[in-house]
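Quick note —
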Amino acid sequence: MLVAPAQADAKDLTAGGQPGPEDTMGGTVRKDAVEQAEPGSVIPGAGPANRPGERATVRLRDVGPDDPPRYAPEWLELREGADAVARAGDLLDPLRIRLANLPGRSGVVIHDLGCGTGSMGRWLAPRLDGPQHWILHDRDPYLLHFAAVASPRAAADGSRVTVETRRGDVARLTPDALVGASLVTASALLDVLTREEVEALVTACVGAGCPALLTLSVAGRVELTPADPMDEEIADAFNAHQRRDGLLGPDAVTVTCEAFAAHGATVRVHPSAWRLGADEAALTAEWLRGWVGAAVEERPELKERADRYLRDRLEACAAGELSVLVHHSDLLALARPTGGTR
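Predicted structure written out below.
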């Protein structure tokens, strides 16, 4: 079963307990090590691997060994192409300028929060010059393994790209989580955070003096063609579902911009909508199921009408007669560089 698009990228965001010695996974995962590993073997950094003296930098939710992953890799794979097309390439030039001007830099260290299967790295690493070291954060060790194995080999100019993974709950960063970071990235993360968690993320980025490229946050607006009288009702219920339990949902980008601005950062926002047509029928169908399902979960009284609505929409999708514009926003925050940035 695929996960509802309301929880669109791979990260567990439930607040956890205090970090313990088991909370960190580390070690650089390079392509040659991955390719030489025997099936079933443990690759350092791609599975639970305690290292003496390591300090936890993210809080790990206390889960049992049989706790299922919250995000299905099939959903992440299904959406990766649409994500890549939607991401705001216009934000890359100011990002490149900032990275090129960081002092004492022989390469960049990029923290990807809630990395899932690593789609952000596959999109961004080949678009940046120079050596890159990616630190991938996620709760699911399987997704971390996949992200490490499928990470890019080279930057835009052929420089080497290396990877390490850290298992943990990215919703709440500890103060030292981003020490030495050149850049923080995330996809579909902000809308499933609370105001307090966004403030913690912003504070960590500002404290590290590093920019943040935070992409594909839901904007709360969907356009379906042809239109249906129930479109707006479903959208309203879905947006209410996104705001459950104090989560920011469609308000996330505004809140994050305000938080960065309050810390003196320069913030740019650019639209990054999915444009789904006949060629994206599989993604559209799965998105519809999750979108309508979340709306009904929020407002059960919609179920009977929503079931008919979903059936009709899926039939139109299968016939190539439905197009959908799912609005997202990408945010680039340029914090003032500090001495803490390497």
